[in-house]
Amino acid sequence: MGSKVLNVKFTNGKEMPMVGLGTYARQADPGQFRQAVEWGIEAGYRHIDTASCYKNEEEVGEGINNKINDGLVTRDQLFVTTKVWNDCHAEEQVVPALKESLARLKLDYVDLYLVHWPFSANGKGEDLGIDYLETWKGMEQVVKLGLAKSIGVSNFNEEQLERLLNNSTIKPVVNQFEINPTLTQHKLVDFCKKHSVVPVAYTPLGLISEARPEFAGKDAIKTDPKFGALAEKYGKTRAQIALRYLVQRGIPVIPKSFTKSRIAENLNLFDFELSDSEMALVDSFNIDHRCVPATPFKALKNYPF
Ligand SMILES: NC(=O)c1ccc[n+]([C@@H]2O[C@H](COP(=O)([O-])OP(=O)(O)OC[C@H]3O[C@@H](n4cnc5c(N)ncnc54)[C@H](OP(=O)(O)O)[C@@H]3O)[C@@H](O)[C@H]2O)c1
Predict the structure, then answer these.
(1) Each residue's pLDDT expressed in tens, for the chain with a length of 305 residues
(2) Phi/psi of residue 291, each to 5°?
(3) What does the record give as the active site (predicted)?
(4) Is the C-beta atom of 292 inside 6 A of ligand 1?
(5) Which candidate in 45, 54, 113, 202 is catalytic?
(6) 113 is a catalytic site residue
(7) Is any atom of ligand 1 closer than 6 Å to the C-beta of 176?
């Protein structure tokens, strides 16, 4: 197993492990989320990412609580994130939405609560037209009530993040968005860093992992010999090179896996370092390709992409 996972520090003094376990899956067998979380904690993950819309908070919470009850970890050694969904964006809906998430997770607080998307929409995908600045007032309440230690956003573009930073009392500590070697996002990452907002990479494996037919022909990174040689040089996989590249840019990553060996593999990133030219090589695979374009939401006013 690689050396210890590093932490990143927020402006509010709280710390978050640089590698977390993602838990989104389109399909899962009963018990699969719980099992992944248990394997994750056993492998050394101390950071778990979920969301109310993943419909897995019960199982994720079960996995967490099982490992706490086993005595393997204490609650304060774990960093748990969940997110408020698009249909709970009115100011007065945010606190109840988090209380419901906490009841499903069987936890007293989360470490980080995120606004999942900058737009609001009902279950039919119709625009509710609620300004995220209003949602944010509810987010500030959850901190005051001790239900979340920190708050942040997800999928906010530069303009939306700037407007929020200029119109908030408690500042977002995180913006979670898609970043990987084929969507390197230098501009938004630099903007976040300049404003002390930690950019967190979702879908960090990008086209290395996905085999969706719509991406056929774009995933040269899976077979490119130069990328393969880089992985071989360090005795790592292509996935580990992609994750190391992000971590080395100062970007925390939250890879998801249901596979025990990959869960361990994705954490094992801290016993090697890419040189400047190797970082540039990984960077050269950028094609600004989004695995998560959220196209069903494209017509909404605050669609960010
Ligand atoms: N805020 C948002 O809007 C948002 C959007 C998307 C994702 N997220 C979060 O980010 C997390 C990660 O994103 P993601 O799940 O979309 O993508 P990802 O973590 O980049 O990729 C997951 C896929 O890669 C496979 N995989 C995992 N480790 C691998 C390895 N070492 N080698 C090869 N394949 C590997 C997994 O397969 P197996 O499971 O079969 O091993 C799974 O199919 C999510 O789970 C979720 O928590 C947030």
Answers:
(1) 456 889 999 999 999 999 999 999 999 999 999 999 999 999 999 999 999 999 999 999 999 999 999 999 999 999 999 999 999 999 999 999 999 999 999 999 999 999 999 999 999 999 999 999 999 999 999 999 999 999 999 999 999 999 999 999 999 999 999 999 999 999 999 999 999 999 999 999 999 987 666 777 888 899 999 999 999 999 999 999 999 999 999 999 999 999 999 999 999 999 999 999 999 999 999 999 999 999 999 999 999 99
(2) -75, -25
(3) 54
(4) yes
(5) 54
(6) no
(7) yes
Give the domains, in start order, of the chain with CATH numbers.
7-297 (3.20.20.100)
Ligand 1 atom with least separation from CA of 263: 28
Binding residues: 116
Residues annotated within a binding site for substrate: 116
DSSP3 helix / strand / coil % (the chain, rounded to 5): 40, 15, 45
**10 Cα–ligand 1 center, Å:** 24
The CA–CA distances, whole Å, from 267 to 177, 259, 292, 296 equal 20, 13, 23, 33
